[in-house]
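Batch manifest, entry 17 of 40.
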Amino acid sequence: MTVLGKKKALILWFNEVGIKDVSLVGGKNAALGEMFRNLTRVGVKVPNGFTVTAYAYRHFLKTSGIENKIKELLRGLDTRNIPDLQKRGGAVRKLILSSDLPEDLIKEVKGAYARLGKVYKQKNPDVAVRSSATA
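Output type: structure tokens
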């Protein structure tokens, strides 16, 4: 995959990411990519997987129409005012949870999950879901 392709990918597999991709997939996912890419070739069994990228998150914010709403909710935020921070954080969380994912992202995640099932010869493989902040 080209660098530009990586930057606009919704999904990246562990074999496609490494420590240099923290800004694309976050620290935990970049570390999982490093482990998968480097340890499996020496016989350590590291489960394969995929990551939903930071670009996918930004794509969701834009296509759902909530990006500007979030900016408005956070305008003038004083992070030292804990009650207000909690109130605004709750409002942002509610907005995100009530918004629909874009169809292309749903399709990509479902496709990656199905591919993972084929890798492990299971119709519904168990997975771990982790959040990973980007730098």
